[in-house]
Structure to design on (319 residues):
């Protein structure tokens, strides 16, 4: 049985206290008394579980809640007073530091409305992890291996990852429901492999970018030097903007690396640069090509004409 870390339950207690008293003046001394933890422990818990230090988290929560009330039509001055700002100018300044624009500008952008409901969260319990895995299954079925086996990517395997380094397991919510996930794990060496997914409706909300910024920050802090992930078709431009570079990967459990190379050589119409080859996990034969955008014609030739192959673009970034 996997037990929840005590600090995780304390973090949840703090978050609930902040949410309950969001319109009050929340002091760290009050939170300390409420949880029974010293200020030093509060800072330490937030360094582990939160995307922001505790004071910044409280400020951002207040601004998000205030932005929602402004959108519903309440007067800015009244909202500012409710959330502890004595003057509109002080509220303007705090609002702009969070959203990068004035309240009026934010209010006029309908796409921002749901952003204020979104939160980036670290997976803190097995139940939250299972919810993320269910989300993956919905997007990429059949993605997660079920049962009690410890094979890679089974639920039990992910539970083991959770017990070792859950700081790198992140997800985003909108109105209480998961809309994006980025789960990173160390597969050897000093880099991380990332399994990610996002609902189509959330591509242009900025939440996926925020997930990766937070993941990269945490990975760097833990001493990792890079991230690698396989992406879906038509996502190359998105990751390029985030600083990732890609290569095309051809894989097969049936055909040897030599067979893959021979088939590639038989395609005389193009010159493909091979940048690497290996046998992954002892049975998956891989061929890497210097192609940053998925060549759909080449994909079709390997997956349909040769068969028993699958291809994708894999992107990586040094941090």
């Amino acid at each position: 049985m996997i037990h929840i870390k005590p600090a995780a339950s304390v973090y949840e207690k703090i978050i609930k206290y902040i949410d309950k008293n969001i319109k009050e003046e929340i002091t760290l001394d009050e939170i300390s008394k409420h949880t029974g933890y010293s200020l030093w422990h509060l800072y330490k818990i937030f360094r582990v579980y939160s995307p922001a230090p505790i004071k910044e988290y409280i400020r951002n929560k207040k601004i998000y809640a205030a932005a929602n009330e402004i959108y519903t039509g309440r007067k800015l001055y009244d909202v500012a007073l409710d959330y502890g700002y004595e003057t509109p100018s002080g509220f303007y300044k705090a609002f702009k530091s969070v959203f990068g624009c004035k309240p009026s500008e934010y209010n006029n952008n309908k796409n921002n409305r749901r952003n204020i409901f979104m939160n980036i969260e670290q997976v803190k319990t097995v139940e939250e992890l299972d919810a993320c895995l269910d989300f993956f299954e919905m997007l990429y079925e059949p993605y997660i291996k079920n049962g009690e086996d410890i094979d890679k990517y089974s639920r039990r395997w992910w539970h083991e990852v959770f017990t070792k380094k859950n700081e790198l397991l992140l997800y985003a919510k909108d109105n209480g429901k998961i809309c994006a996930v980025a789960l990173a794990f160390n597969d050897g060496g000093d880099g991380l492999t990332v399994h990610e997914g996002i609902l189509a409706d959330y591509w242009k909300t900025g939440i996926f970018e925020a997930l990766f910024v937070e993941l990269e920050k945490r990975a760097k802090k833990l001493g990792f030097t890079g991230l690698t992930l396989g992406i879906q078709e038509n996502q190359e431009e998105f990751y390029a903007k985030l600083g990732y570079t890609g290569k095309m990967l051809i894989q097969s459990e049936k055909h040897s690396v030599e067979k893959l190379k021979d088939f590639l050589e038989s395609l005389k119409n193009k010159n493909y640069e091979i940048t690497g080859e290996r046998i992954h996990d002892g049975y998956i034969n891989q061929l890497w090509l210097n192609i940053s955008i998925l060549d759909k014609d080449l994909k079709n030739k390997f997956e349909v004409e040769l068969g028993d192959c699958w291809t994708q673009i894999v992107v990586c970034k040094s941090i």
In short: Strands lie at 119-122, 169-174, 177-185, 191-198, 226-231, 245-252, 274-280, 284-289, 310-318. The chain has three domains: 6-116, 119-224, 245-318. The first strand starts at residue 119 and ends at 122. Residues 6-116 form a domain with the Arc Repressor Mutant, subunit A fold (CATH 1.10.10.60).
